[in-house]
Amino acid sequence: MNILIFNCGSSSQGFKVYQVSAGGAQQVIASGKAKNVATKTQSQPVIDWKINNQAGSTPADLSTHRLAAQANLAILQEHNIAIDAIGHRFVHGGEYFKGTARIDAPALEKLRACFPLAPIHNPNSFSVIEVCGEELPGAPQYAVFDTAFHAQLPEEAKRYAIPRELAIKHGFHKCGFHGLSYQYVSAKTAEYLGKPLESLKLILCHLGTGGSSITAVRDGHSIDTSMGYSPLPGLVMSTRCGDLDPEIILELIRQGYSTDEVSKILNNQSGLIGLSGFSSNLAEIIEAGGQGNENCRIAFGVYANRLKTYLGAYTWLLNGADAIVFTDDIGVKSWKLREAVCSGVENLGVLLDADANRNAPLDKASTVSHAGSRTRILVIPTDEEQVILREVLAQL
Known about the structure:
The chain is of the alpha/beta class. The chain is 39% helix and 20% strand. The strands form 2 sheets. It has an 8-stranded mixed β-sheet, with helices on both faces. It has a 6-stranded mixed β-sheet with strand order 11-10-9-12-14-13, with helices on both faces.
């Protein structure tokens, strides 16, 4: 049985095909990632893929996630990869979905109703579901939701200080996101450290090419996270503003901007692209800043400062952490960012090993802290697709 997993981010679209035997053995027979989907960078849109013993890089029109899904499926079809079932990452299930769901006609209507909750994620994932339904009509599809990991947030972290009646009526509370990644990385951290997850205090930094967040984990449970009711607040992201004084939103509306226009500004035109006017890609921002682009230098500074602020807050919240973990594309690849946020905090017991940090492998867990550091600094690649696969297999 071949199970296709789609992981649709705001500016990327990854896929893996797992071949699962009757005895439960699994192997990845195909994988790929469409990069620079529906976003502005200095790089060209391309799909990097590996299928069996072959690898390639295919330029494609990735101006929308629908086109990216069609291109990804075309690569699989060219290599005669049959698909028996499909799992999708779906960021925000709102009040409709509390766990993994089979996608049928009623579920599609509920998924569509969730569009406003994550406007640069949910519609994109929905378009991928539609493409799969059109091109692979015989394969059952399942939605796996990012919000589940944070479902038991403590009330003091979950609630907003607005009238309680309004919060209950509209479901306004912190939901948290990147839960699939946090579920995988927290377990991997415990395995790497050789300690029970229930005994650890962790700060997990999921830093992606599109969205980024940070979560404090105690005893295996999320106790606070930077994203909120939607994926918009928290850290600076590629095109999202992160934390913002809400009065700015009100003033934009007073100045005549519609709610849709404000949403587009904050979700699609802010963050790194808004600060720099150059790129939404952090690696390109860092490079240009080093070459004298002042706007890019400032953009990197704002990005790093926001991350340091949350690291400090969660260190206090946990009364010290056993480990700070960096994951996803930026978290794993950007030694310059890790250096920027983990240097100069020796008095807090956090000591970075410069050489280990610069040479951290991209494909396995590693330690980048100094031997004398009270808090371990780890780099651990995430695998959200593995979590989605387990959910799909449980449903099947």
